[in-house]
Amino acid sequence: MRKAAIERNTKETRISGALKIEGRGKYQIATGIRFFDHMLELLTKHGGFDLKLHADGDLDVDQHHTVEDVGIVLGQLFAKALGDRKGINRAGYFVMPMDETLAVVALDLGGRPALVYKDLVKVRLVGDLQTELVEDFFGGFVNHAGANLHAKVLYGRSNHHKIEAIFKCFARAMKYACSKDARLKDQLPSTKGLL
Fold first, then answer.
1. Strand intervals (E) in the chain
2. Per-residue pLDDT in tens (0 to 9) along the chain, 195 residues
3. Which of 77, 95, 137, 171 could form an SS bridge with 43, CB 3.0 to 4.6 Å?
4. How many CB atoms lie within 10 A of CB 86?
């Protein structure tokens, strides 16, 4: 089983997380931001991972530290659980309709962090989440997972659906990218011999 546990404590946030890649979609998540919790629950369920995550952040100041630091911890959890990355598919993509909204995510777990993010969200808040921080969450993730991630909403009306479609796409793309190919189990997914 590929799994990892991490604690990250700063003057702004205290976060503990545990991840199992070959999970069953089980989650225990509490960040103090309910809509963000919901998105992380979707990620866990649609990716087939198990995730326990608890964050205490300085929400009296702003949500930024909590959201970005959760992205950092999630990236660290995946990086640790994937280990040497031998045998993984490495890349994955998914296209997700969410009622009137359509989103696409493509990612590569090849070790080079990069993020291109376009969600077309036009409001400051969805539920209790500051929407501009979703990009910061993914920025924290890619920098610590060693991932290249492109996430885009092609069209849609509901801002809720736009963010939800991206998280569901991300989950399904991660599920495939983390999966192992039995034929290549002893090989790194790179012609360089290094990720």
1. 3-9, 13-20, 27-30, 50-57, 91-98, 101-108, 114-118, 125-126, 129-130, 148-155
2. 899 999 999 999 999 999 999 999 999 999 999 999 999 999 999 999 999 999 999 999 999 999 999 999 999 999 999 999 999 999 999 999 999 999 999 999 999 999 999 999 999 999 999 999 999 999 999 999 999 999 999 999 999 999 999 999 999 999 999 999 888 888 777 777 777
3. 171
4. 14
Full-model pTM: 0.95
Whole-number Å distance between alpha carbons of 122 and 34? 20
- What is d(CA 77, CA 82) in angstroms, rounded to the nearest whole number? 8
Look up residue 56 and give its two tokens: 């205490």
Under a CB-based contact definition with an 8 Å cutoff, are residues 71 and 77 in contact? no
Q: What sign does the dihedral 14-30-70-36 (CA atoms) show? A: negative
Indicate the Cα dihedral angle 23, 25, 26, 29, nearest 10°: 110
Question: In Å, how far are 17, 150, 157 from 166, measured between CA atoms?
Answer: 22, 10, 14
Paired tokens of 75? 């990236």
